[in-house]
Structure formats: structure tokens, C-alpha cells
Fold each of these.
Amino acid sequence: MTDFRKEGAAAPFGRFFLPGPTEVHPDVLAAQTRPMMGHRGPGIQELMARLQEGLKRVFRTERPVFVATCSATGLMEAAVRNGARRRILSLVNGAFSARFADIAEACGLEVDRLEVPWGEVHDPGAVAERLRNARYEAVTVVHSETSTGALNDLPAISGVVAEHSDTLLLVDSVTGCGGAELETDAWGLDFVLTGSQKALALPPGLAFGVASEAMLERAETVPGRGYYLDLLTFAKNLEKFQTPTTPAISTLYALEVQLECIRSETMEARWARHLAMARRVHEWVEEMRSGGLDVSVLAPEGSRSPTVTALRLPEGMRGPDVVEAARVRGWVIGGGYGKLKETTVRIGHMGEHTLEELEPLLDVLAEALAEAGVRA
Ligand SMILES: *Cc1c(COP(=O)(O)O)cnc(C)c1O
């Protein structure tokens, strides 16, 4: 048996609370050992047709769900390359929403950023004002900002964007979809994307996206939308239950098993389970505070993600010390992201984790905070 306390070793099942990649159930992992099949035959078409049913349930859409072989960032790039020719507005409130803006810029778009402090969320009124003052082809937003644990109010933001018929709403729901309430059709979202390795609790390698009719119409007007990430090619191939290029077939096998697990749980129960885990973490933070430790949840109450929590550490305590103190006890949590590396740590309570599994983690975390506090 491998020594899980050794640096770089995988933690035993039930102890891996990274906010992506997330823990994958052994049955889902095992599905990947099925033999290969050709990616143009009837076998893959039948598989893809079954997967569509499950994916539509996850995204809450009647539209086809594109299956791309790339990490989530690939579909962030697809979003801006297919959704705009010239100018977009990027709502920035953390590292991944900043990345969305950077990608758009790297693709040659003119990008205006509406930025709020990391940890906070966007005020729909402020978005409305920006949209009144300038014309944008699209707005980018991150649903659940994984770097801070903040959850944007998507229905409200979508309502504001919908007042401008030429403006599309492009949504990164990488740590939302599959864990946080998400209604692609009912909320009128033009493009929603996620990756396999976050709240869907699959191995990395696939990304999924849903495009509205308006999004596909826009794509037709964009000459430089590229080849690999051309959403019109995805749409055309999906009519035959195929993908434009060779998909990560083994990950599709894993997806089939995981979608069945999600179907039997139901989306409503899945959302409720994630909310319950987040609330337990918030409650535990209050317990730690009443014990005299100045730890807090970074995102404000009412705007917290059900899938990931960033904890602001007491003055002088270092994020990497807390992560290391958890690691030597055999548990994995996330370090702070980007400029929050020293001052925060993150718990990914998403995927297949349960309230029961969370309790021992919180006990270990209390010990880790005490140990890191001694060093501070
Ligand atoms: C992880 C993450 C990404 C990037 O995902 P990759 O699969 O590594 O490309 C983008 N956005 C958010 C919100 C994420 O959590």
C-alpha cells in the first residue's frame, strides 16, 4: 500500500477535498478500463445519445449539450470566439473571471472589465448601468468563482442582459453545474460551460457546453471563430450523435456511470446536498470563531457558493502551512488561489462528498489551524 502521508501521494477515498479536480468514485474510475470503440461507429452514437439525456438533465436544458475534449478553459475560449467579433464586457470578481477576460483579449477582442473586489459578487444594477452606457456583443460571468467561493446571482444578471437583445450572456459554471442550482433554459443563458473534473466529479479531460439559438446565430457571423472550438461544427456533428474530432472515449465511459448516479440522486437532491455541506462549513466557522479563532468565510453571506468555500485565515497564519498540516494527516484541501494564496485556504465540498464525510475533515482542519497558528 502506498503511504498517503508521503508528499505527492494520492489521499485515500473520502479525504480529497480539492476544489478541482475533485474526488472520483471508484466505480466511475473503473468504467474507464472498458475497451476502446471507434469514434465513428454506431457504438459511440448510441453511447452519445444516452449521454445527451443525462447531460440535458444536469444542465436543465432541452438543447443539445456539446461534448468537447479539452479542459474547461477550452470552452471558455469557445464562448468568446463564437460569441463576439469585437467588444465584450467581462464581469471580474476573482481569478477565473479574470481569466475569462484574459482569454477574450488573447482572442483579439476589445474587453471592458467590470471589477469588484475578490470575494464579492456583481450587483445586477451596476451591470445594467454598464450595458446602458456602451454596446457589447456579449457579457462573460463566472457562476461560482472557485478562487473565492462567491456565487453570482445568475438569474438577476441574466434578466439585466436580456434587456439588450444583441447582447449574449456567456457563463462559466465550472464549479456550479452539477452542484449549485442552475437552470440553463429557464434563466435564458446563451452559453453555459463546465469541465468534467469539478462538481460533476469525473476525471479531467472533457468539457460540456450548451449554446442558445442566438449564440449559434452569432457564431455564424464570426469569421474567425477557429477550427477546433467552432460550435457550429459541434452542433452539426451532434445531430448524428458524434463529435468533430476523437473524443476522450474512456472519460465518456466514466461519464455514463456518473450520469446514472446523478439521475438516481436527482438534481434537486444533489443541489440540496451541496447546500447542506456549505452550510455546515459556515456553521463550523462560527464555532471556531466562538472558540476565539479569527477565521472567516471570504464570500459575504447570501452570496456563497454551495460547492467551494474560501476561508480567510487569522492574521499571520499562512495558507500553505494549513494545507501542509492537513496533508500530513492524510487529507487534501485546496490552497488559496493566486493573490489569495497566503491568506486563505479552500475546501471543495462538491461532487460525491457527503455531510458525514465533511465532519472528520472539519476535525482535521481544526487541528491544522491550531498547528499553523502556533507557527504564526
Ligand atoms: C477550474 C476552473 C476553470 C478552469 O478549468 P480547466 O478545466 O482547468 O481548464 C475555469 N473556471 C472555473 C470557475 C474553474 O473552477
Note: DSSP finds twelve helices and 14 strands in the chain.
Amino acid sequence: MSTGRLIIDLDAVVANWRSLDAMTNCKTAAVVKANGYGLGAANVAKALFKEGVRQFFVAVVEEAEVIRAELGPKPEINVFSGHMKGDTDAVRELRLTPMINSVDQLTRHLETLPDHPFGVQLDTGMNRLGMEINEWAAVAEVALAQRPKLVMSHLACADEPDHPMNPYQLAQFRKMTDGISVPRSLAATGGILLGPEYHFDLTRPGIGLYGGLPYAEAQPVVELDLPVVQIRDVAEGEVVGYGNSWQASRPSRIATVSGGYADGIIRMLSDRTRLYHGETPCPLVGRVSMDLLTIDVTDLTEEPAKLTLIGPQQSVDDLAADARTIGYEILTQLGARYQRKTFGK
Ligand SMILES: *Cc1c(COP(=O)(O)O)cnc(C)c1O
């Protein structure tokens, strides 16, 4: 085996969905955009569908095809980017529910697909997607007369429970939607953890399903083992890797393992993380290259056949912290070259 082995535990995904669902008294959807946060949207959606999940969210219509093909006609597949120019055929044929983001999108939808389901996305301060308060005031009556499936908004700071943006956005959302008789949704993973006033009728967790922060109690979902290609002795004073960036301060053993920035092990991790042999940390030394890493295994008593980058000793979020990023980015960059082993459900 010459590529890394990525193990994806769908039972853990399902367990995480169940735990998040149990925190609310409302419905719980599943966000499977970006190929299920890099873990395989079809497999993830299938496992969750078996568990009873009937509402899924993707970012763009192109992502919906594989999910509709896998799950058949039953589940609702909602699209955050709404009904963009060129989306009409896919929205109709795949029976998607676009979250309408603007007056333009609303017009397009009602003109091209009258009677086809849709939702509405409102902007409550994040300034990314959705209608703003004045736009919504202008078209709410027309839109609501068509009985949208959902009215939703998204929190910008839900991973910081004490951030004043959270109650501000909650108040904006209430101001824009109180009194309407359409199901409402505000919370993603972080919003679920903020408490019941954020839950409304439907929550939309993504990262929590896949074992990432801010859901600290999540079960880990992925493990990543990288095979050792060769091991060499390096004398004190010798250098390792591109740019001579690491120099041995003692006689060392260096393992070269298969995996690099082309596999999502971002270059920022150079000299900043470690791989594990069982419970023993082995520092990544020198620069991450496209296909290879160099690891200091001097302190091991045996020659490892593989080393673990993500596993029991080091979570996705630990790795993200080393890389000065977030778990979301580590997960969604996990490479296509790995041998992927998906088990469970
Ligand atoms: C990505 C996304 C989610 C899921 O967010 P997580 O933080 O991964 O739970 C929910 N809603 C919207 C609008 C999103 O873009």
C-alpha cells in the first residue's frame, strides 16, 4: 500500500447526528456540502437517511445530483446558493429546494418554476447570503403567498457562545420572521449549542456530524494513516527536505512517508506537527512536500510501517490548530489520492 489510508466511521457520523438531534425539540437536517465535508456525500447521506434524516443541505445544485441518485425521491434536498442562472433544469429534474437569496432569485424562481418548492434565506448581519431586511419587507407578502418550505438565516459567530453577534442576529431573525406560518431555521452546529431559543423548527448541523469543533463532545469520525516509504540515518548537522529547513542536532533516524500537500496536508504544517506511532509522537521535520513528509523517528524502538496523522492521539482540530486553521478546512482538503475505507451503516 503506497498511499495513505483514510478511515471514515459512518456509525460515528450517525451517532453525532443523533446526539445533536437529542439536544433540540425540533427537526434536525444534515449539511452534506463539499462532498460531505470531504468524507463522501453519498455514503454520509445514505447512512443518515437510514437513520431517518429527511432534509439535507448542499451549497450548490451540482452537489445534489449524487445525493438524489443515492437516496431517491423521498428526502428534501435544499440548496444554500438558491436558484442561480442556469440552475433551473437541475432544480426541476432533481426536485431540489433552492433557498432563495435575493429578489432576482425569487423572480427567476417564480417565473421559471411556478409551484416548485423553495425556501428563503435571510441575511441577519453576516452579509454573505440572503435577503436583507428591506428587501424582505418588499417581497415577503408575495413570497409567503407561495408557501415557502423554510425561512432560514445563518449565524456568523455561533462558535463563540458569548459573542454579542448571536443575540443580535437572533433578534434580527425574529423581527423578520415572527408571526409567519412557515418553518424557520437559524442554527448550524454552533447554534444548536447556544440553546433552545436558537433552534426554531429545524437545525442544520454540518461540522458536528463529522466530529469537529465547536461540538467538543462529538465522536471522532476519521483516522488517517500514512505508509513509510523508507527510513534513513542522518548524521548530526545534516539537513532534511526542501530549503534545508531542518538540521539534525543529533544523529537521527528519518522516516519518509507517503502524503503531502497534494493530499491536503497543508504546507503550513511544516515543522509544526507530529505523526504518531501508537502513542509515541514523532515530529514532522522539514517542509511538507507535494507527496511526502519527513518524520523524526529517532526515539522509536522499532521501525514503523506506517504513522498516524489523525487518530486517537491527534484530532482533526488538533491538526487544524497546528496549521493555524479550522477543522472544516482540514476535513474538506483531505485528498482524493488516499485509499478510503468507509465503514458502518
Ligand atoms: C455550512 C453551513 C451550515 C453548517 O454549518 P456547520 O458549522 O458546519 O454546522 C449551515 N448553514 C449554512 C448556511 C451553512 O453555510
Note: Residues 31, 33, 80, 154, 188-190, 204-208 surround pyridoxal-5'-phosphate (CB under 6 Å).
